[in-house]
Each structure stands twice: as C-alpha cells, then as structure tokens.
Amino acid sequence: MIVAVWLGAFYCAVLTGGACAQPPVVNKSDIANLLSDARSIKEEIKILTQKQWNAVEENAKVKFHPAFDGEYHFFIGEKDGRVAGYVVMDTVYGRRGPIQYMLSLDPDGKIKEVVLLDHSERLGKPSAMRRFLRQFAGKTARDKLRLKKDIHAVTGATVSSRSISNGIRKAIHVFNEIYMDNRRDHSDAAKKRGRVSILHY
Questions:
Q1: What's the pTM?
Q2: CA dist., res. 53 & res. 71, Å (int)
Q3: What long-range pairs does 29-33 form, CB within 8 A, spacing at least 24?
Q4: In angstroms, rounded to a whole number, what is the distance separating the alpha carbons of residues 180 and 171?
C-alpha cells in the first residue's frame, strides 16, 4: 500500500487546535484506477522553489497553508515511453478540519477526476458532492475554478466547497509550474526539485 505522507502535523495542531485528520492510506488500486491507461506508475515528491511559490500564489490567487503545502506528491503514469497522466494528492482546510483529495490530470494538464480521500466534516449529501466534483472535469489552469463563477457549491457546505475549489485551483497551478512550464524528462527534473520512487503495479 502507498501511505500518503501528511506534512506539517505540528503546524496543524497549532493552527487548528488539534483537529487534524489522520494521514490517508491509499491502495495502489486507487492510483491505478485514476491512471488506468498507464503501464507503469512512479511517484515524485516535489518542493516548490520560492519563485514557483510566488507564481502559484499570484496566478491562482491563493495563499499557501503552512500545514499542507510543504511538498507535493505526484504520481505519473507512463505508457510506451510517454506520459499517460498525472495524479496529485493535496489537503485543504474546510470548515471543521482537513479535507484530503486526489486530482487526476491528462498529459496536457486537463482535469479528469477529483476523488475525496478523507475529511472530518459533513460535506452534504454524497450525490450532491459527486455532482460538485464532476464540475471540475475538463477544466484547466485557464479556467476560473471559482465558486459563483464556473463552480457551484454544495448546498449547506459552502465553506468546504470553497476550500476544495481553491485547493484544486492551487494544485493545477502547482502542476503547471512543475511540469507544463518545463517540458522535459521528469526524472531529471525531480532530481533537482524533489525525490522519485518507482512504483510497481
């Protein structure tokens, strides 16, 4: 099993009064399902440079959270020597606690699917949340990805809907800064800005 590293526990305890979710445990099948076209999958752990950090905050119009934005876990699916897709894991803070999710993207950075992993609050009816998450499919960093713009909130869960929307907008801009602005071999890029693990599925 792949254990997602949940960073900033100390900061989370301080900032939220101890209302911190446990790190999610993600089965290999969860990643494989999101990267179903891939023959192989590898994990890259990325840390943004200060320049990239500033660019994301400016372009996404968000502020990074000290408890959740220390580093980013990307899973890269490959087939026949080409990238088949990406998955990024992220955590945002909702109304009552952390909300952890996975975002899958195609090779050009278009959102394919959003999957909730763990959360410590009620997010409306499951069917309403599924409809909410489906709104992100097909969108890119060029879209607004904002409530009351191109995204509609879940009734009764506006704060959490806004947190998830802001997190997805941030995550896709992080993805762009790392992968889309410099189209090059991911292994070389990771050696300079993070770590690489080859996963066998």
A1: 0.80
A2: 11
A3: 30/102, 30/115, 31/2, 31/75, 31/87, 31/102, 31/199, 31/201, 32/201
A4: 13
